[in-house]
Amino acid sequence: MIAIPPDLVIKNARVVDGTGAPARTADVAVSGGRITAVGRDAGAGRRTIDAGGALLTPGFVDIHTHYDGQATWDPVLAPSSWHGVTSVVMGNCGVGFAPAARDRHEWLIGLMEGVEDIPGSALTEGISWEWETFPQFLDALDDRAYAVDIAAQVPHGAVRAYVMGERGARNEPATPDDIAAMKAIVKEGVAAGALGFSTSRTLTHKAIDGEYVPGTFAAEDELFGIGEALKELGRGVYELAPAGAAGEDVNAPAREVAWMRRLSAAIDRPVSFALLQIDAVPDLWREILELSSAPDARLFPQVASRPFGMLICLDSLHAFGDHPTYVEMALLPLAERVARMRDPQVKARILAERPAQEDILAASVRAFPDRLYPLAAENPDYEPDPRTSVAAVAAAAGRDPMELLYDLLLEDEGRNVLLMPLLNYAAGNLDAQREMLTHPRAVLGLGDGGAHCGFICDASLPTTMLAHWARDRHRGPKLPLEHVVRMMTRDTAALYGLADRGTIAPGMRADLNLIDFDRVALRRPETARDLPAGGRRLLQRADGYLATFVAGVQTFADGEHTGALPGRLVRGGQ
């Protein structure tokens, strides 16, 4: 009998398998989309790749994205797929597009635009709305193919508005009948394949009309009543952006953990929530982690791998965007704007004038030059030394910080980008973040892929984990490569019940990354206008990803999409 060769064999790889075990040299064989062998001398396959000692990891599982709209028009789901991500979970923070009554489409778009900074015009043009209920939404996704696997959660905001109409949209209290109806919709959605339920309680999340996300002020009877749907099904994660997450109320997080502990015990399901370091109470995160570790709690704080903040550049948010002279040229092509701004008279006029109507974001940039750090074009440093801030450099040179910032924005023909850390950088370093990343209850999240298109691009967090934490960090201890990989693979997959992926072992799904570890690095973020209706977004590419496979099919080669779309909707735990 002639042995049938594997579909794929990757030979001589430095395997970091996702379990946290030490790296080892091995061959990995794949057939039928599954890993069939891990060891030495796997022989030849129908296709054989000699890794030559390159790093081989499981595909990364990103549990915090907002591709709910993009998934209906974009099969590649960049930028996450550019950074080794092979599975994404969307529908976070209580916002999404199902269930969707026909007269609520534009309202749901306004909610997503306000909360997640996704251009409403892009959503209006891009979403085709072939669903009303959440199961129908999943069916619509199931009819599509992707470069990654996708999974969804049922969002509180959409459910509340669907059940309660304007009462729900205005955050009026829910009646017992309202709660019963919301619970039924969530139960139906999770039974159809949603991985859980999400809500938002932070005051920083508002719709485009200024209203808070439906559910922001929901009472415990509503929050627990909906959670009962997960208990009855015995599956699903309860995810939320808690009150005080972004520092709007420094006393809120401890209160939030108290009810989340009771919730997790009552419904016997994991509860996952955003955890960030807040400048006003820089050690509060440590208390939250301690409270989350109680034996009676199933709480899993989501943490990031770098500062949470805004990206400042001439083609997006910057300090002079509301100055009258700049406003007159704001719609000109970038090259023409740069040429005009280089005129000494124009520069003097912009620097001297004050906004006729102040933009709150531009004003915040002007207010904190000590938090502005230029990002290098190659391998930008997300743990910058405070001595390199715009304020510090200006002081050393005897210059006005706004005048220096003006010049920096014009560098590289207007493509220069500055980082403005707002959270996770209270001490001017990432020591606190390292402690969060090593806590046994913490999971990696908060990348927000698909969201915050105008001033954040954190979907590249996996590359930061590899390049900064496992290799390059020089302002404090690094993290072991095996720990870094485990956080992005087995740990995130396990939280959401995706037990068929996240490790390199026989029988597991063949989602894999082949990486030149010495070369893996971020590039500087850049602006693109590639969303529907010409919508603008910030994107960030990476170097060093030699190959990415989804179910054994190569989706990326040297950072470029191969055209293959093996990814599908994932329904429920696997």
Automatic annotation (TrEMBL):
Residue ranges occupied by any Amidohydrolase domain in the UniProt entry: 47-554
CDD domains: D-aminoacylase (cd01297)
Source species, domain of life: Bacteria
Pfam families documented for this protein: Amidohydro_3
Entries under InterPro entries matching the protein: Amidohydro_3, Metal-dep_hydrolase_composite, Metal_Hydrolase, Metallo-dep_Hydrolases_sf
PANTHER family according to UniProt: COLLAPSIN RESPONSE MEDIATOR PROTEIN (PTHR11647:SF1), HYDRANTOINASE/DIHYDROPYRIMIDINASE FAMILY MEMBER (PTHR11647)
Protein name per the record: Amidohydrolase family protein
Source organism: Actinomadura parmotrematis
